[in-house]
Amino acid sequence: MKTIRDIDVKDKIVLVRVDYNVPLKDGKVESDLRIRASLPTLNYLLENGAKRIVLISHLGRPEGKVDEKFTLSPVADALKKLLPGQIIKFCSLPKEGEEISVPENAKIVLLENLRFDPGEEGNSETFIKNIVDATQAELYVQDGFAVIHRAHASTDAVKKFLPVYVGLLLEKEVENLSAAIKNPEKPVLVIIGGSKIDDKKPLIDKFVKIADHIVIGGKIAADGYVSDNPKVYVAHDFDENTKGEKLDIGPLSTADIANYITDAKTIIWNGVLGYVEDSTYATASTIVAELIGEHQDAKTIICGGDTTGFVEKLSEDHPNLHYSLISTGGGAALEFLLGKTLPGLEAIKK
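Above: the chain sequence. Below: its structure as tokens.
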């Protein structure tokens, strides 16, 4: 796959698919993790002389119609704070035959939510061609790892109208996840939490062939998951509330997991270990996150929406923690690890 390093972007208008599907609260961005993750690609394009960067993204599920609850306007405000030296223009989706009017000094344009038009999820060639024509884009960069498992207009149909390249975030995600499944440094530790065994069983089955140890925690363990495979360790003690509900794994299991972490050279963590919405039951997840973040000799990958959000928030208060990859991928990361075909990646390869 060719990346933006393989092309001359000087004086080019570049269409960039980012993933700005971020949580909003009271009309403001609650977590800017995904916005910050796109900055290396944006800065590279700016530093190498791109004439203009046109950013396209979706937010939420407006179901093909305009819904102000899902406007990307707060994202534009957040982006302006992260790139204070840049003039950033926020524009509505162009109508057919319409050209977007942008001030000459505006290097970055963010278009409104792609899913305000049914053509996005419908993988409409007409819809994405209209955007290409309206923005006069000359190159397309896919940097939205979290959407590459979707065959949408901005991830798939776009390949028919522009040459396609990989952004730096997508490159980082693919390289780290590929290394974890193709040639990981051993010992390999996989930590799996969360609540739904049906979602996690394929991951367990996949990594039981690769990992040296698989640790099962979270509600999966609390609900009684068992395995007779010697590689699989299931948490066995729990912290309970007054109703007897098992809401976090206990100190004995946490200590066992700590030992696995210390010995590991590759660590993949998917799924929190307790009911972390209540800090009383976030103890095990906090300890595990800190131990992984302090383990500088290992390749460490955090994936899954709840887990990445938890680790990102913890990192804000503990800047000494470092991870090889806090994946922005969510479902895309899981499908990539499972070896499924991802339409967005196939579009790049073609």
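The domain at 176-337 is CATH 3.40.50.1260 (Rossmann fold).
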